[in-house]
Write a structure and sequence with these properties.
The structure is a homodimer of 307-residue chains. Chain A is built from 11 helices and 15 strands. With 307 residues, chain A is α/β, with parallel strands linked by helices. In chain A, a hairpin with a 2-residue loop joins strand 14 and strand 15. In chain A, helix 3 packs parallel to helix 5. The longest helix of chain A has 18 residues. Chain A is globular and about 65 Å long. Chains A and B meet through helix 7, strand 15, helix 9 and helix 11 of A and helix 7, strand 15, helix 9 and helix 11 of B.
């Protein structure tokens, strides 16, 4: 079985949407990536850090999904990273209410020895120096390195971000971030400029409007599945990244054609994530449900014009 | 050859976008619909009205595209409908600067005798009473009636709009209009409610984010082609409608599968329309260019996951 190494936050989230609010619940980029990637046939491990306030049941959940948690450092007397956000009525924008870095402030990632030869590395949203440090620790060049990031690092750690971006094969960012990073409004031009920064593949996430994959002059588009109700977008982007990197790790095929499939798998898994608060939907989701919805993606997008 | 009857404005537009501005140029929903539908193998006619200030060269252009203009009334001493709009930086929103109804204020549409048995009727955006009047004049039930409308009529002629909506097979509106008409935020729920109002098929246009086709519990999505540059969105929705109705008229097949193809053709033609100001791009567009871009739509959306 191929190995997927996941780096990112394991955290507490408190979320408010027009449909309700939560107390501190399980969250974090690596959590969502790990849960999503667990739908594929692979070995995975998370590199992260939590405080000793982090409940054992959350760790047990990850273990129950066959995720290796030996790379999750537990800091004695430390407090786990906490984020709180309020989504607006259209769910497309949100305000961050609280960000407590806590143990994340001094995080030194340690890649477990048996993952230093991982086939795919998924660098979830974190300080670019942490992302770089993980790549430094690899003893074998991974088949594919995927990086997710956000505007926060463009604002406050751009040189470090540009350094790590040089070293990755795939970058996943949203449309506004692609515009900020490239200085181009047109997403086609933005993707071309970002490819010049290093990543041969650029994935631009547009939330409810789907995702675009650019490579050289080729482009592929995966829609978001139109849903009756969206309750909570938290984690959708990470779930997408987990589906994308998990599918690539399972299939060992990094052709553009297979990346199209990976984008579809990512979109498919993300469509479940938003149906309930936090990780709730992903915890109980079955492979059979995933397969049924994949069929919906097919009929949503496939047509038979002969050219 | 099958017959397509087109109803809508033939007009003057003055357009300003971040990329430039135009004087009074050829515009109008029926103009764009007609130019777009001219890429298919069919007979088409426009029912509309202009003043005698309308240049013969614009009428000649329509005739050169094999569009029957005998249903375009020329009002002596009258002035042609004029619209002027200013697009904002992201091109997704615009302000209407001027609307002069002129001859459109008293427009009584007259369907040419030889189009009272048209196979497909495309009711472009106009007062719903004008749209109804055209349907009243048909002597044979059309195979398909498509209606395009906008929020303006929902605000000021809702009862008349609901009456004509009852009589059509397909409605095309944008996402905000679908929400306004249905009172539902979720587009899935909005489309379900609108289907209860009459149209068995609901097309929701999302501009640069593509278009959705709903029928019973089925849904299909066509992306907009990612473009390097968009100069002027004016007429894109009408060009889409012309491609949709033109393809259906040519193929005589109103199955859901064929409507998927029609949506792709509509999106394909609309992707050209926005590349230059006004009707400029559509006037010189060749069938070969259309075929090449159709291939791009295919690689943009088609994937090969076996389920």
């Amino acid at each position: 079985m191929n190995k997927l190494l996941i780096v990112g936050t394991v955290a507490f989230d408190a979320i408010e949407t027009p449909f309700g609010k939560t107390d501190k619940i399980l969250g974090g980029a690596a959590t969502y990536i790990g849960l999503s990637a667990s739908f594929f046939n692979l070995q995975s491990a998370i590199v992260s850090v939590v405080g000793d306030d982090f409940p054992q049941e959350h760790l047990d959940l990850l273990t129950s999904k066959n995720i290796d948690i030996s790379g999750i450092e537990i800091v004695k007397g430390g407090k786990t990273f906490f984020w709180s956000g309020l989504y607006h009525n259209d769910l497309n924008s949100r305000d961050t209410l609280v960000t407590e870095l806590n143990v994340l402030a001094d995080f030194q990632p340690k890649v477990p020895q048996n993952y230093k030869d991982a086939d795919v590395v998924m660098l979830g949203n974190l300080h670019p120096l942490v992302q770089s440090s993980v790549l430094d620790q690899m003893e074998k060049k991974p088949k594919l390195v995927v990086l997710d990031t956000m505007n926060f690092w463009m604002d406050c750690a751009l040189p470090e971000l540009l350094e790590v971006i040089k070293r990755v094969d795939v970058i996943t960012i949203n449309d506004e971030e692609a515009r900020q990073l490239s200085g181009e409004y047109s997403l086609v031009k933005a993707a071309a400029k970002i490819q010049e920064m290093g990543p041969k593949y650029v994935v631009i996430k547009k939330g409810e409007h789907g995702a675009l994959l650019f490579h050289n002059r080729e482009v592929f588009f995966a829609p978001a599945l139109p849903l009756e109700d969206v309750f909570d977008p938290t984690g959708a982007g990470d779930t997408f990244a987990g589906g994308f990197s998990g599918f690539i790790a399972q299939s060992e095929n990094i052709s553009f054609g297979n990346m199209k499939n990976a984008i579809i798998y990512g979109s498919n898994l993300a469509s479940f994530c938003v149906e309930k608060f936090g990780t709730e939907r992903m915890e109980t989701l079955s492979k059979a449900e995933v397969a049924i919805r994949l069929q919906q993606f097919k009929s949503l997008t496939q047509f038979d014009i002969e050219i």
